[in-house]
User: Fold these one by one.
Assistant:
Number 1:
Amino acid sequence: MPDSDQNILNTLSDPSSIRQLGLNELECLASEVRELIIKVVSKNGGHLAPSLGVVDLTVSLMNSFNFQKDRIIWDVGHQAYAYKILTGRKNRFHTLRKMEGLSGFPRLEESEYDHFGVGHSSTSISAALGMAVARDILQENNKVLAVIGDGSMTAGLAYEGLNQAGDLDRDLVVILNDNEMSISKNVGALSSFLSRKLSSKWIVKFKKEVEGWMRTIPRIGDDILNYARRSEESLKGFFTPGILFEAFKFNYIGPVDGHNIKSMTQVFRQLKDLEGPVLVHVLTRKGKGYKPAEDNPTFFHGVGCFEPETGLAKKAKGKCLPSYTEIFGNTLCTAAEKNDKIVAITAAMPEGTGLRKFSEKFPDRFFDVGICEQHALTFAAGLASRGFKPVVAVYSTFLQRSYDQVVHDVCLQNLPVTICLDRAGIVGEDGATHHGLFDFSFLRHIPNLICMAPKDEAEMQSMLYTAIEHQGPAAIRYPRGVGVGSAVNEKVTSINIGEGELVKDGDHGVIIAIGSRLYPALEAALELESEGLSLAVVNPRFVKPLPVDILEEIVKRFNKVLILEENMLAGGFSSAVLEFLADRDLLSGLKIKRLGVPDMFVEHGTQKELRQMLGLCKGGIKSTSLKFFS
Ligand SMILES: Cc1ncc(C[n+]2csc(CCOP(=O)(O)OP(=O)(O)O)c2C)c(N)n1
């Protein structure tokens, strides 16, 4: 057992000193790092369970490699907290996920030890291979490592990387961090294959039986046996996960206990002398070392503030409203009771997208496809082509992966797939990789697709019904978190496609605010009314088709229009309005101001802070309005 009086973490002079530590000190260091992670994440929120699961692995890697020279890519990067702490960021770790503080993910700009920016899954093998090829061209001498989880191995992109890596035969290490979990339990045939961790005793017995059986197969039995023998440790490699990676021409090592620092450092040291692509299969436990997280790794995957002693979530102040996600999940269940053609699809996020309840109520109509957003859309298109009504619930940022599938498989064939984009707009602390700021821009130009954004929860319900009734593809985007608390409908009715609404009339000008920006605009307008500035407020509801009737009407009445959206200004909703007005020759005499996200990536911070920074909160809208309309 490590000596609890030692304080290794505080005495580390720099990351390279970890290479000098003995086993006892490394174990001690790992428990100190765990403690710090729990302390900070309990206050700031963050990806606790994935990070705790790889503390021993991180310490072992830092002891065995020199990451000033060697390169490492943490897939997704949500598990890299220990790496941040051990690579010179311990003193800033308390700022994790705070505005201007450390990012929750590795970032090139943040540290010379972060070799590649991450956030979306399954990029590590491809990026590592690129670095390995660059190293060889530059005739440098270093190791390149990709650390990828078993959940992230469900994505096709990971296999595209493996495929080329095996072919190029470069010196590359892939570490498969297998905890049998994605955010929830991992899914798919691959996951059951990986979990076949055969004990040595069992293998010996199995080997004898199988060898005997193979010999009895006329002609081909001996050939198969010879092939099996050629693979790592003959039948062990043939009948364990090794066979998969050996097929990609990787040398398979494992499984290795990912909480045994001694075993891991021994394996990693051997890697120094091995050339070509190698895959080390490491078994870890998500949440390791913190009982509440070990017991409930899904809850602690990405968690808000909690009491470190008990693991209980800290209650948010004020009224506790249901989130958009929850309301979406409940509304879909109600719709699915009446319509047995509705099927629901998630890409590894049944909790995050609110589909858990649906999965329990309608297990035969629910599909978790793994971290496979591209497949999710084409799979949905297949179902739709046979008369079903697939509803794909996905975070806006992850739909970016499926752009071609939306165009080519869904919209080109005008198939009635409903895409529900959760976490659209500013998402907050997860930052630049996770904001959903591009969807209006990458969806609104696709023929056949209707695209809408509700002002509140009740309107989101109506839009879901509208999408399901619609005979073609439809997308609905709604924000992270709670809405304004509008009464949720028991009996939901659909809305007319392409129809906007005037929510407040005025005399001096008009604000058109789409989706989550409607209420802040309305509040700003109500306050301004009492200050003598009378503004109309329009809820356009649709980005495509645009609510042309109300747009035409208001530009005839007003000569100043402020347009608001929580999306990139380039190609978003306000661009659509400008295009429409130009095409109809309605721009002359009109002054238009647009508020949205300018040409920049928005970093991390709370949703409130970021909206304030962008001028998209009530205060910002008020001050812009005062300047623009007065
Ligand atoms: C393209 C994409 N889709 C979805 C996610 C959301 N997501 C973050 S982590 C995660 C699970 C990753 O599982 P695994 O790779 O096994 O890592 P673990 O959390 O178990 O350590 C998912 C689905 C993502 N980051 N990227």
Number 2:
Amino acid sequence: MKLFVLGVGPGDPELLTLKSKKILEEVSLIFSPTGGKDNIALSIVEKVINLKNKKVVSIYFPMKKTRKESLEAHWISIAEKIIKELKIFKKGAYITLGDPSFYSTFFYIYPYLRLEVEVELVPGVSSVSAVACAIPLSLSIADEKIAILPANYLTEKDYQKYLFNFDTLVFMKPYKNLPEITKFISNFFSDLKVYYVKRASLPEEEIYENLSQVPENSLDYFSVVIVKKEKKNET
Ligand SMILES: C[S@@+](CC[C@H](N)C(=O)[O-])C[C@H]1O[C@@H](n2cnc3c(N)ncnc32)[C@H](O)[C@@H]1O
């Protein structure tokens, strides 16, 4: 039994790799994780692959922040569901937004699959690359250091520590934490460039260079904030 875990990119179907496209054409079974938000991964695949003769199995992941232990039973049941289908189809593809190695729910279930299933990960274009290119911004050059941070898990002390130690901060899932991020960066001693990017690479993409100007209706789960220290010699 084999499961391909495909990073399908950040939204633009043209950013789906040739390798993922080839695998999606070959398999008859596709697992599609959902969490109550728009299913962008499946909408990317639908635009590139004819799903008419394929079985698409939805895999539900609760999006709330919960301790790992309390979700373990759910992850085991997802792994069992995947194994049951793979026993019939022998191979399948599990699609995931962006890149599978990067904040993907797949890794919650991986430990319960890997003893029975051969798993192959196929890289994808991550939202971080898509957001930086959309701005456009160099995330790092020469000696610059980047920190990629889950905004929904940070405390005020964290902001201070990371802003002192890194040149570029990338905040994932920042949409509920914009007030804290705005407050903290406004107290920082050095000049900063700040960007909020919603739905990079999709037609609904929006870019703001001032967090206080982000309208309420642009606060979106599919967004990233980038904070970069301004260098005096930068053009
Ligand atoms: C569960 S993580 C998945 C990350 C994904 N594996 C990747 O490589 O980009 C979901 C977060 O990714 C970011 N994200 C995903 N797609 C995005 C897009 N097209 N534009 C902006 N942010 C995006 C948002 O911060 C969102 O809350």
